[in-house]
Write a structure and sequence with these properties.
This protein is of the alpha/beta class and 190 residues long. It has 8 helices and 6 strands; from the N terminus they run βαβββαβααβαααα. Strand 2 and strand 3 form a beta hairpin.
Amino acid sequence: MQTKNIIIVGVGGQGTLLASKILGDLFIKKGYDVKVSEVHGMSQRGGSVITYVRFGDKVYSPVVDEGEADFIVSFEILETARWLSYLKDGGQIVTNIGEIDPMPVITGAAVYPENLAAKIKDKGVKIDAIDALSLAKEAGSPKATNIVLLGRLSHYFDIEENLWEETIDKNVPKKFLELNKKAFELGKNA
């Protein structure tokens, strides 16, 4: 199998690292060679965070270059726009439509761009935009936004649902397991 590339982008504290760990474990269970790489950025200050997940028959590098991502999974719509150049032609975006104001917007030095999902779609990009934060809250915690987005991403892979569940079971603390299973289902059925 040709190597497939996923980048996961968000803001510090949104669970990008957990999402990449779950995906990495999932693809290993499917028998692929997997490489996962993390770039934290200013995650501790709410800054941009990106992780790469690459899988296939043989993967030599953990890094995804511009124009190589088959998928971008974005936890915040401005991060989608920021990393759009990494998506390959015909690639797919799965994104939360939620907005988190970056520091320039907070300080009044800039204005948050409006209608980003529509603007991205108008460029001919395949974008699957959902209100993942509201679904996570419905599941029981806004922190489950990452799992909601994985549920939505599951539509794009021919992987048995029980493998997704087993991988979530392995990586999520037991006391949050039912909440995260519900979040995955809500995302999958969004």
